[in-house]
Structures are given as C-alpha cells and as structure tokens.
Amino acid sequence: MKYDIIIIGAGLGGLISGAKLAKEGKSVLLIEQHSKPGGCATTFERKGFTFEVGLHEMDGPSARDMKNRIFTELDVFGNVEFLKVPEFYHFVNDRVDITVPHDPSTAATLLKMKFPGETAGIDAYFNQLLNTKRKNAGEEPPDQSVGNYLDSIITNEDLKLVLLGNLGYFHDDPYSISLAYYSVAQGSYYNGAASFIKGGSQKLSDYLASYIEKHNGKVLLNHLVTGFLADNGKLTGVTFRNTKGQMQEVNGNEIISNSSMASLADILPQNLSDNLKSVIKNYKPGASLLSIYLAFRNNLKTIGHRHYSTFFFNNSIKSLADIYKNNKGDFKNRSFTFVDYGQLDSGLAPEGKSVGAVCCIDYCTDWETLSRADYLAKKKEVTEIFIRRLENYIPGISNEIEYYEAGTPLTVKRYTLNPDGAVYGFARSPGLPPIDTSSLPENLHFASAWGKTGGGFSGAIYSGYLCAMNILRKRK
Question: In the chain, what are the domains?
Fold first, then answer.
C-alpha cells in the first residue's frame, strides 16, 4: 500500500501532524520505535503509581494560545482533561524564599515589594516578555543572551536568579540562550498560565494516536525506520524493522520526520545525509535531565508541603554566571526542581497517596563511560543524595517515600533516540538563524522540537501542526 503521509516518530510533533492530516482525509502511516506513543510525553507504571516522564506544566492552553485552536480542532478538550497549575513556581535559596504567581501584574507587584530598588528593571523584564509578538523585528536590536539582557536592566543578583528560576525548562546557561526565544516561551506562561494533564501526558499522546487510527490512519509501535527508498533524487518511501529484526518497506508521497535531525541524517541516502549534516553542523543539542521519580504513601500536604513546583538553587550560586558551572558540578550541590503532583488531583496515584519528581539539568557525559555495574551504583548514590537534600528542605519527606526510581540522560537517549539525550532539541543560541532545509527533497518535512519552533511540549505541538498545514497548502 502507498500512503499519502509517512511519519517517522510518534512524539507530539508527529502525533499532531498525523492527526491533522488524517482529519483532512490523508492516508497516514506513523512508525514509532518505542512501545508507546509520545516521546517525552509519556508515563510509566510501578506498584500502582503512574509516573510522569516529561510534563511538569504546559503553558496554557489559553484563548490566545495556538494550542487552543489546535486542541479544539482535534477535539482534545473533549477527551483530555487539563488541570490548572496553582502557581508558576516557588523559588528557594539561602537568601530568598518566594512564590511567583502566573499573573504577570501580581508577579511584578510581588517582586517590586521584595526588591524595591529594581522597579524599572522589573517593568522592563515583563514588557519584554508580554509584548514580544507586537515588537517590530526591524526596530529591535540584534538578539542577545538572556543573561546579558538581565545584566543590563537589573543589578540585584538574587532578583535575576528568581526571574530565571525555571531556566531549566529551556536551557542550562543564561548566557547562551536567545532572549528572543526565551521571551516567547516564558511569556507564554505569564500570558496564559499553565496546566497539567490529568492522568499524565500519556493521555494526550494516546488520544492523538487513537485519533489518527479513527480517521483511517495507522500507528505502528515497536518498529524502527532504518532507511529510505528513493527515485531520481526524490524520497519515495522508507524501510523499517520490527523487534524481531524483520525488514519491511512502504511507499509514501510525503515523509515527515519527528526524529532528531542528527538521527535522520544517519539513515538518509549519502548525498542527502551530507547535505543535512552540513545544514545542522553549527546547531548543538541542548541539555538533558536527570529525573528521580518518587511515590509517597501519603499526600505531602499531610506533612505541610504546599507548593506544586519548587526550584532549589544551591547556595554557591551567587550570580547568573554561576548557574552553568553548578549544572556541570557535583550532584551534592547541583540545583534541582521538585514537583509535587499531589498538589493537584493529578490522577497519578491511588487514593490518599501521591507522586513527585526531582529533576536537574544533566548530561550523557556524566554517565556514558561507566560500566553497567558502576552506572547502577551511581544511579543509586545520586538518588540517595537528592533524597537527603530534599529532606533538608521538606522535613519528614523521606519517611513518606514508598518507591523510587531514577532516569538518567542515557534513559532519555534510549527511549527517544535523541543525541546526547537532549530533551529540548537544539540549544537556542542568540542570533541562531532558522535551519535551512531547501537543499533537501521537497517531500521531506520536519515536525519536532528540533525544528523552527523549538523545544518543549508547545514547541513540538506547534511544529506538528504547522508542518501539516504546509503539506496541505502544498498539495492544494
């Protein structure tokens, strides 16, 4: 059988593009190497608990958010429940303890009370975030790093740290992330608040996969695309294998890559592989994450915990310049995030119990040279380090732990095939131009966090929908 559309990878970009194209009557085949759809938008089960792999909070969806249009069109709201997150984030270091709300006006007022000498800088920061889309690019100065921008408008180092409390949602270093990119991403949280998907992000991924199939598409799990069919320079299909190593091939008019561009380059015909590698040679994968999944025998409200997401900054971080060094440093001092899903009716735990997660920026280089035995020993050691550190902030929490499990950057790499276990696609450096794919076949398209819209759940969703729309316009 020949399909209108073949999609490589069932991350959110692939799922959204497939759902939209299937809705428009195109025959869709989606091929995914993992046993479940979703990429980083997945969950797993242990001992009656459901653990969220990737989603802490999704910006919006709000009335002005393109996800609202996409989810409405695909009837997501009628099948997936979104829970409003009660606050943006809680920030703690040895000098500051503050909860930042989603409402920008309230947040600005609170920050001005906490840092009374920085009123002008706070106003400038929120103006930058809230009015990004209205700015005329031709009148704006060249893109710069977030760190350089904050240094130019604010003098209090702790205020800068508070404003970048959730920097780990996007990148690992304030001096190498684009202000333009950050402003759109962070501004979306302030413009439209944030949500968590009840039952975990797998609910959204499973729904989108079922939507494709209900509209006469096909989703193949546990199958890995290994190469391409080509004729006169045009891609005509793909080859793939199942878990038993049995090879198959299928033809398609249009091919969408939801995989990383580096992974795609490895399986393209040689001339196209060389072209793509040349295109992305100046683009570097972003950071990865270490995640420790925790199951609690009680809701943590019973021991007095009240915050959904808390960013604990190590006391060694005195300025923005210390953030990247800390992310590369010893786990005993590395800053981390704790997410307490029990602050919501998350649907992740049995009645009266709850789950949470500790996350920190991490890299494959911390793990990839270890033997299997040393790898497991280090996972155990690092997990125990973070549990002890969490106990210092939330006394009594260690006694509530019923089960725990850790995932490293190598875990991310294993299940997503992303180079370096990157969770946000390419690092978004200041002034980095859009990726030019004009040297590639016109029927090869991209829908993922590695594309123009960037990483995160929203970036992947936008990428998938825009990819589908481009194909539909092309075919018309």
Answer: 2-42+200-283+433-475 (3.50.50.60), 89-198+288-362+368-407 (3.90.660)
